[in-house]
UniProtKB/TrEMBL annotation:
Coiled coil: none annotated. It comes from Enhydrobacter aerosaccus. One of its GO terms (molecular function) is kinase activity. Residues 123-303 form the CHK kinase-like domain. It holds the Pfam family APH. Keywords: Kinase, Transferase. Transmembrane segments: none annotated. This is Ecdysteroid kinase. SMART domains: CHK (SM00587). The lineage of its organism: Bacteria, Pseudomonadati, Pseudomonadota, Alphaproteobacteria, Hyphomicrobiales.
Length: 365
């Protein structure tokens, strides 16, 4: 195991000062105190996320007064999911290899450690302030949804067709058969508890589709991850988006890259629209937002991918949205009341999309 603290409470002045100087965050000032506080409700379900408040012996330009720390979750069930699906190596890989090239604003990385033996890790990240955090339960506003779709289109367009060569072919791949098998196994375990825990969230059509999906989940993941490929965020939803005028043309920053990797990019779009928009808003703007996304891809130089291709890929990605709905309502420790509200809203919205778009028709025979 690596020599670093295993929780925010274990972060010492000596360790923090050493890594901040080693990574050239500081040059002259020395850390004199550090205080950890857990971030707000509903945050950190799959990781321990805290704000570290730092004091120094002297002023220094650029010395952060606060930073964000991330460590593995202490909940055994969630930790098991995170390890089996490689959440922590995926996020560390993003911040250490790709974040500096991302067309979407992300927090600055100050320090990263990872032990592949047990997936213990630590990330020290910029604490982005003076921004509006999206609200998963309330849902995105139309302007926020438009900005989010445009931003993810730019991210996908930047790496469209480029993720299976060079240094990127070492990044996590959603088409890996071991990943598909792990998702299918966990999904089957969580299916019945999801229906028991949230009986009002799933229509008869969605229940039938979800049950049939259990036997072919790995095949569906492979199909969705093949064809047009790019780098995707993987958990692209309101609670992981920050909005503000300082974030460039899109006015948006994306956090929490634990589920990122190479695969079918329309998953990000379907996950966003079916999770983070109230169902009535999705009804009204779904096709328009998809056209905005497709137009952004075209502007980024993507060719050979028609809007009909985009719509077909979107429907298949909506089917894959059942994975996170069943995980969230059937097996994860949701942390607190807001986490439970978020899971309830997510399941109801995904249920509506699955039923309306008849994505059960896409299940392999």
């Amino acid at each position: 195991m690596g020599d670093w603290p295993r929780s925010s409470a274990a972060v010492t002045v000596e360790w923090l000062d050493a890594v901040m100087h080693r990574n050239e965050v500081l040059s002259e000032a020395r850390v004199t105190s550090v205080t950890a506080s857990t971030l707000g409700m509903g945050v950190g379900v799959m990781a321990e996320v805290s704000r570290l408040t730092i004091a120094y012996d002297k002023p220094e330009d650029g010395a952060p007064g606060t930073i964000i720390s991330k460590f593995p979750t202490t909940d055994p069930a969630n930790l098991g999911i995170a390890r089996s699906l490689y959440f922590y190596p995926r996020e560390v890989a993003f911040y250490t290899k790709l974040a500096q090239y991302s067309p979407v604003r992300t927090p600055r990385l100050f320090h990263a450690e990872l032990d592949m033996a047990d997936h213990s890790f630590v990330l020290l990240l910029e604490d982005i302030r003076n921004a509006v955090l999206g609200d998963q339960v309330a849902g995105l506003t139309p302007a926020q949804a438009d900005a989010a779709v445009t931003a993810i289109g730019r991210l996908h367009g930047a790496w469209w067709g480029k993720v299976d060569s060079g240094d990127m072919d070492t990044l996590f791949d959603f088409s890996n058969p071991h990943y598909g098998a792990a998702v299918q196994s966990a999904y089957q375990d969580f299916l019945a508890p999801a229906f028991d825990n949230f009986p009002d969230c799933y229509s008869s059509y969605t229940r039938q589709t979800a049950e049939q999906l259990g036997a072919v989940a790995a095949r569906v993941i492979l199909e969705q991850s093949s064809g047009a490929r790019s780098f995707l965020h993987g958990d692209y939803r309101a609670d992981n988006l920050l909005f503000g005028p300082a974030f460039g043309a899109d006015g948006i920053a994306a956090i929490d890259w634990q589920v990122s990797g190479r695969g079918g990019p329309l998953y990000d779009v379907a996950y966003l629209l079916c999770n983070s928009l109230p169902t009535s808003d999705r009804h009204q703007s779904e096709k328009a937002l998809l056209r905005r996304y497709h137009s952004t891809l075209t502007q980024m130089g993507v060719t050979g991918f028609s809007f009909d291709d985009c719509w077909d890929a979107y429907r298949l990605a909506v089917l894959c949205g059942l994975f996170v709905a069943i995980f969230g309502t059937g097996g994860m420790d949701l942390g607190n009341q807001r986490g439970r509200e978020m899971a309830h809203v997510m399941a109801r919205r995904i249920d509506a999309a699955v039923s309306e778009l008849k994505v059960g028709d896409l299940l392999p025979g």
